[in-house]
Design brief:
about 120 residues, mainly beta
Length: about 120
């Protein structure tokens, strides 16, 4: 099971524990320890700015990105090789040059003010 930090649009934050989650047409599906979709969890899609694993995968090729969300004073940090702004209203973070996407990160593009590498634009 994994712990995910959930950042709400109104600036609050809390954690959920589940095997994983998926985004299906403006709905979050949470999976239990048997890797089955759970009918015991609900998270309002319209209220979520971001979902990020508490303990992110780290590789020496990943860069820490500072993601500044509306109504939050501190940025959240996402480790990835790169990112892009998708047409589906979310930021996609990638972990390989072949653009393999992290499936365990969700960031709503409408809630992002800025994204910059932690070490700056070098």
């Amino acid at each position: 099971m994994e712990v995910f930090n959930v950042y709400l649009k109104e600036g609050k934050q809390f954690s959920v524990t589940c095997e994983r989650f998926e985004l299906k047409v403006n709905e979050f599906i949470f999976f239990d320890s048997d890797s089955q979709p759970s009918n015991r969890a609900f998270l309002s899609f319209s209220d979520v700015a971001a979902i990020v694993p508490e303990h992110q995968s780290f590789c020496e090729t990943y860069k820490p990105f500072q993601v500044y969300l509306r109504k939050r004073n501190k940025p959240i940090q996402v480790y990835a090789l790169s990112f892009d702004i998708g047409q589906d209203q979310r930021i996609r973070f990638y972990h390989s040059p072949g653009l393999l996407e992290f499936q365990d990160i969700y960031v709503a593009s409408a809630e992002v003010v800025a994204i910059f590498p932690s070490e700056g634009l070098t």
